[in-house]
Amino acid sequence: MIKALLLLFRPVQTWNEIDRLARSIAFILFAHLLPLILLTSAVEGYGLMHWGKHQQSGVAYVKHYALGEVLVIETVQSLLLVGMVFLGAYAAKAFAGTFQRRFTYRHAFAAVGFGCTPLIMLRFADVLTTPSPWIPWAVGMVLTIAVLYHGLPCILKPDPPHAFGLFFMTSLTLVVINGILRLVTSFFFMGQFPGVESFILRLTGAAPS
User: pLDDT of 169-200, one tens digit each?
Assistant: First the structure.
């Protein structure tokens, strides 16, 4: 979380340090991304168990999730977030390759992995039951785009005429990918996928709440 705050308030210095350290994909994944994702998943899971989510299929009510359900839901969400970073990094590398700049996938993964930190951190707000789930997502997405504005040129070092194109296409890709993820999870928590909920209940042996 300290890195996320530094990226927001001291972006140039922090990105320069990230570029200088040249961390491996494994280091970024296991020392930065996974701990942050697991922490936010634990907080959201606690909220699902103790405060629940408003269901809007049929009669409106607040559903509280059992521990087994929470473990399945948060595991799936964590895997999707990790997959989003890998896919976003692949897209960034492809776009940068279009602009004829040589670098490795590690550079793209570092830019996207650290750049998505604000979006992942805003998952803390998902513990709340009343505001729209799109509000924290939108705030996190805007902050992520702001962080990437400094990070992509610093890490990928595109030619100046191509820098904005790389930033725009990478940001647009992340907005689309994360928008789809948020749409699916929002529909799930509203009770729009009863078949999936029934499968999770059977998988965990939990009683319907």
Answer: 999 999 999 999 999 999 999 888 889 988 88
Domain membership flag for residue 91: yes
Q: Which residues lie closer than 8 Å to 183 by C-beta, 6 or more apart?
A: none
Cα–Cα distance for residue pair 188/25, rounded to 1 Å: 31
Cα 162 from Cα 148, distance rounded (Å): 15
Tell me the residue type at 32. H
Burial class of residue 165 in the structure, from the number of CB atoms within 10 Å of its CB (0-12 exposed, 13-18 middle, 19+ buried) = middle
Residue 184 lies in a domain: yes
- 35-94 pLDDT per residue, tens: 999 999 999 999 999 998 887 766 677 888 999 999 999 999 999 999 999 999 999 999
**Cβ neighbours around 13 below 10 Å, total:** 12
The answer to whether residue 1 is domain-embedded is no
- DSSP percent split of the chain into helix, strand, coil, nearest 5: 80, 5, 20
Structural domains counted in the chain: 1
